[in-house]
Amino acid sequence: MSAISNGVGSSAEVTVKRTLSGVYDEAGIRFSIDLVAAARRHLFFLRAVSESPWFHDPSTVSQAIRRYDDLWMPFISDLTVGSTPPVLVPPLDIQWVWHCHSLNPPHYRKYCESRFGKLIGKPAIFDDENEEYALNRCRDIWNQRYPSEPFQLQADTDSSPFTSITNEDILNEVTKHKSLYFKFSQPYMSEILHLIAARQRYIGLLYVLRRFRDEYSRLVPTADILLIWLTHQQSYPAKYAGDVKEIEGDLGKVVGVWEAVKEEDRETTKKLWERAFDQPYEKAGATMDIHGIHSVKSPPMNWDTSDSDANRSDRSMETRFLLEVCVFLRSIPEKNETAEKKHEFLRLRIIRCHREMKIDKPISDIPGNSWGKTWKLYCEFGTRGLVLEHRRRGGGCFRSSKLVGRTAFLWNDLIRAPSLVLEKHEEQHVKAVVSITPPVQAPYLLKCVPDRVTDDSGAMISDVILRMNRYRPQEGRWLSRTVLDHAGRECFVVRIRVGGGIWRRGGEAPAAVRWEDRIVEIREGSWTYVAGSIGAAPQKVVGTATPKSESRGKKASWHLSTGDELTIEWETSSSSSSLGLTFHLENQTSLESSTKVRLLKGRKMQYQVSHRVDLDTNKESDYKENNEEDGFVTLVRFTQENPNGRATALLNWKFLVVELLPEEDAVLVLLLCMTILRSVSEISKEDIGNLLVRRRLKEAKPGSRDWGSVILHPTVSSTSSSFVSPHLQPWYWNVKAFMASDDVNQPTQQTNYSAAEGGDKLYKRSILA
After folding, report:
1. Which residue spans adopt a coiled-coil conformation according to this UniProt entry (predicted)?
2. Burial tier of 760 (Cβ tally within 10 Å: 0-12, 13-18, 19+)
3. Is residue 453 part of a domain?
4. HSE of 260 in the Cβ direction (CA atoms, 13 Å)?
């Protein structure tokens, strides 16, 4: 019998589900608005404000406060009949001030009643069409009432008459909430499944407020509950006041978003929630680390929000989805402690990757008085799920263990589970709760691996191809690289032209081509194999890079088919092939584009490594920058929404591996990566990135160390008895461990080439000349 129940519908689980779903009626709370839809629009609004240029200018913010206090509130008060506000939406600047002001319900109510004798509410708008109608209608009425005041905030006008703020309370609220969006900017926050679960948990916290009102001084909401609470407060102040009228005093004991949190309040909140629902209070995507002035802890990798996918048309690239996973354990007390229990442990495994991964937790270390967060991971949805194995250590000189039982938590089951949480437990020892966030699109991961030499048509140089073409000579020599995605699928073929001439099974010696003919091309799709690993590259060419002129001294220039021109320079005084590199990327199709894109040497911005985990001690330590920055380049785009720049791609030209946000063009990033390596090799006269390798190297078997498929959070996960593989960390923390192939270091693989492929002399002349 399995030591952990494989049945999803255990009695304990059903009880938890029924209790959590029944608190709506038991708490006696009714919501007069759709909080799920409102929360989603709330997040979109916060993001729109944070990306507005005026948001970063104190003078225009002061204008917005004046417009709200002197113009908007008298305007909307006159049009409000009773407690029903008109269906009007003010311009963005006034919306933002109104939003911040209403996040302090007691002050906002006092302000409204003292000035207008009533509480001013907001209209219930849940779709873009109604919002556009309300905005246009508001503009018409505004222009009639204030003909000399523009409806939209004019950020470029002289704001000196409005720099003095008379209402300091409103100014304080606006200033306080300036960075509010960044507390809820995680990409899964706006997913409907996450918001539905958050609404249910918000009801749960209100239930705890009423049921245990004499047993706490402050309660601390998690990030998801806090989002729903703030949405309830600011979206519709009048409706919020009516919904929480009976528990308004209790809500004063809930810690706000900017308040510091005491550890004793954290523990009290956890214990009361566990008493009410027999589940851990925190879950994946919902921790209590959101409060106070400190920024929210970022995941150990770049997981940014993207509105568009520039690569959606490239069918060869499979979309990558990522989700956050938390595993909580709680031991079940036993009357008679057995000696065998001391030798038992739980092992965490992932179903479709990392077969050799062994992350253990001794059962004797699992807390019994509360739920303990044991592991926190970020997993690709394609990994399917996780498995908890119950094992018992055996005797003898070998540290072997025996499988006692196992149970699986599948992502598909968790997506359908209430609040995205699933509980299963052993009959005697341990309860386990796994929670996830909804899967959202993650950055693409691509790597280039060596492949066979090809001819001008894209077919591999081989007797097989020659026979198929009735011994018609194969013309030209191209170095080839196959581009694999995160799951090892072929999606592009990159080729570098190095030689001309023909091959007919004789002793013909191809000759190097001119500098301007040594182009780089990218073909979309996978190889068409005709015999084993022999085949032809796809026909569709999606990108090219052409040398502008022969490199002189320490400088090389390339014209890219994307309209960009790349210039690479190398300082003469530099002792390393990359430390002295500088890059300039300019788009020739727009005069303004040269200031919008930059290539920065090293891992910058979101990719900067400020800490890492020691693989021997499994402890986090400060990371000191050293030569590990060598080979990395960060692509940064500057836009009106991101005037300080946003990293959209990271590439390592030594290992030919890239990570890019969906909004970034994969073809451009691959061209940059290959042309940088090609230029550095020519300038330094060294084969730094193994460009001379002309064989298909052996790749790791699928499932053994799939890169990027699982990332173990370094500060939460407990790994008391196991070695943490570098493959459970972001690839750019240790790129060599991820990408280096053992075959590259074998001399026979670099020198033992057939006459058809050509000798080293040709390629050295074309690559290192």
Report:
1. none
2. middle
3. yes
4. 2
Q: How many CA within 13 A on the CB side of residue 73?
A: 25
In this structure, are residues 46 and 184 in contact, taking their beta carbons and an 8 Å threshold?
Answer: yes
End-to-end distance of the chain based on CA atoms, in angstroms? 68
Nearest residue to 309 (alpha-carbon basis) of 657, 707, 648? 648
- Other residues' Cβ atoms within 10 Å of the Cβ of residue 395: 8
Q: What are residue 76's DSSP bridge partners? A: none
Share of the chain above pLDDT 90, in %: 36
What predicted TM-score, i.e. pTM, was given to this entire model? Answer: 0.87
Write out 14-64 in H/E/C secondary structure.
HHHHHHHHHHHHHHCCCCCCCHHHHHHHHHHHHHHHHCCHHHHCHHHHHHH
Query: Please, are residues 4 and 390 in contact by the beta-carbon 8 Å criterion?
Result: yes
Report the C-alpha gap between 318 and 585 in whole angstroms: 28
Query: Shortest CA distance to 496 belongs to which of 467, 470, 519, 468?
Result: 519
- One-character DSSP codes across 571-603: -TT-SSTTTTEEEEEEETT-TTGGGTEEEEESS
539-578 as b/e: b if 16+ CB within 10 A? eeebbbbbbeeebeebebbbbbbbebbbebbbeeeeeebb
Joined together, the tokens standing for residue 245 give 């009228």
Q: Return d(Cα 120, Cα 326) in angstroms, integer.
A: 42
Cα 197 from Cα 531, distance rounded (Å): 52
pLDDT of residue 12: 34
Indicate the residue type of 475. E
Q: How far apart are CA 354 and CA 344, in angstroms?
A: 22
Residue range of the domain that includes 119: 38-155+162-184
Burial class (CB in 10 A: 0-12, 13-18, 19+), 751: exposed
Is the residue at 179 inside a domain? yes
Burial (CB count <10 Å: 0-12, 13-18, 19+), residue 352? middle
110 part of a folded domain: yes
Please give the Cα distance from 570 to 577 (Å, whole number). Answer: 8
Taking the C-alpha atoms of residue 474 and residue 299, their distance in angstroms, rounded to an integer, is: 51
The pLDDT confidence band at residue 764, using thresholds 50, 70 and 90, is confident
Determine the Cα–Cα distance for residues 166 and 85; give it in Å rounded to an integer.
26
21 is a domain residue:
no
Query: For 640-694, what is each residue's pLDDT tens digit?
Result: 777 788 899 999 999 999 999 999 999 999 999 999 999 888 888 888 888 888 8
Q: What is the CA radius of gyration of the chain?
A: 31
Q: How many domains does the chain have?
A: 2
